[in-house]
Amino acid sequence: MAGIKQLGKASLDPRGKQDRWLLKAIDTYLTKKQSPPRQGVFFPSLVSNPCDRYVFMAYNGLLESSTIDGNLSRIFDNGSSLEDRVNKYFSNMGILEGREVSLKSTLPPISGRMDFLIKHEKYGKVPVELKSINTRGFENLRQAKPEHILQLHTYMNLWNDNRQLTPVTHGIVLYENKNDQKLKAFLQELDDKIWNNIVTRLLKIMDMQTIPEKCTGDKWCKCKEV
């Protein structure tokens, strides 16, 4: 009982109170406006979005600016820190071929930056798409997520479209558990069918004259906000 009484007293101690001013000041500092995707171009993260309505609106410059709050800014910053750390690993291992490699195509117009290009002991040059994920999602991973496979295939094919470069045949989606830093690496072989489906879809969206009425994405798809 004495311990419970002491605990009760401790909970009233002002030293245990959170400083609301500092929390608000940090969030205010980190909150910022995010411009909509650039009109007339597809980005790999956009390519992987299952909603044709959203992709059409993004490509045609119909999305509005959005607000990134403090918490989301910290999530993005944490992702950047992960990239810096993995970049250091690859560099010290002597397998780093490139980071944030800029890639483009003209038809369909796609522009993006490959996270990493490494030298694989078996497959030569291999793109790596880096993702962080929480414990629950990490434990449920049996293969790379479909949207990440699409992103990776976009990078692989954009790389191969530049005929002056050594073609790639495989890519890797590398996941780190953000709670305990465990890793999973899913090897993906280049699949022409996946790329053909991507190109066919994007060309179809480019030819659309009106906005698709229905959202075909997730329940939190941003096309619902417009």
Features:
226 residues; alpha+beta; Lambda Exonuclease, Chain A; five-stranded mixed beta sheet; two-stranded antiparallel sheet; 7 strands; 24% strand
What would you note in describing this structure?
With 226 residues, this protein is an alpha+beta fold. The chain has one domain (28-209): Alpha-Beta Complex (Lambda Exonuclease, Chain A), CATH 3.90.320.10. 42% of the residues lie in helices and 24% in strands. It contains eight helices and seven strands; from the N terminus they run ααβααβαβββααββα. The protein has a five-stranded mixed β-sheet with strand order 3-4-5-6-7, with helices on both faces. Strand 3 (96-106) and strand 4 form a beta hairpin. It is globular, with a radius of gyration of 22 Å. The chain starts with a helix and ends in a 19-residue tail after the last helix. The mean pLDDT is 87.
